[in-house]
Amino acid sequence: MLVKGVKMAWIYLFIAGLLEICWAYSMKLSEGFTRTVPTVWTLVFMVASFALLSIAMRTLPLGTAYTIWTGIGAVGAFVVGITILGEHVSMMRIIAAILIVSGIVLMKLSSTS
């Protein structure tokens, strides 16, 4: 049963990271919380993301869970910024994203859970 709990914790963490991307994007669309619908979506995504992160942290170590959650959000927001919002792409930014992903992979591989 413990293995199932650990697998579910990783799934919750991954979904929480995806929701972090959603709230970052909707926050951008809210234009500083001046637009109602994107503001409401931002809050809904934030609460859901934090809730799933907290559930994952019942099983996973704090450092691992938080690092992976923020990494998914950071790289995801970077990709959304480039692909949807047309933000600037440079080799340095791509290398930075690759380093973040490398850190996420290493954190997962080094986790005992």
From TrEMBL:
One of its GO terms (cellular component) is plasma membrane. It comes from the Bacteria. One of its GO terms (biological process) is xenobiotic detoxification by transmembrane export across the plasma membrane. The keyword Transmembrane applies. Gene3D superfamilies: 1.10.3730.20. This is Guanidinium exporter. The keyword NADP does not apply. It is a multi-pass membrane protein. Its main location: membrane. PANTHER family: GUANIDINIUM EXPORTER (PTHR30561:SF0), SMR FAMILY PROTON-DEPENDENT DRUG EFFLUX TRANSPORTER SUGE (PTHR30561). Keywords: Cell membrane, Membrane, Transmembrane, Transmembrane helix, Transport. The chain crosses the membrane at residues 40-57, 64-85, 91-109. SUPFAM superfamilies: Multidrug resistance efflux transporter EmrE (SSF103481). It comes from Advenella faeciporci. It is found in: Cell membrane. One of its GO terms (molecular function) is transmembrane transporter activity. Belongs to the drug/metabolite transporter (DMT) superfamily. Small multidrug resistance (SMR) (TC 2.A.7.1) family. Gdx/SugE subfamily. Coiled coil: none annotated.
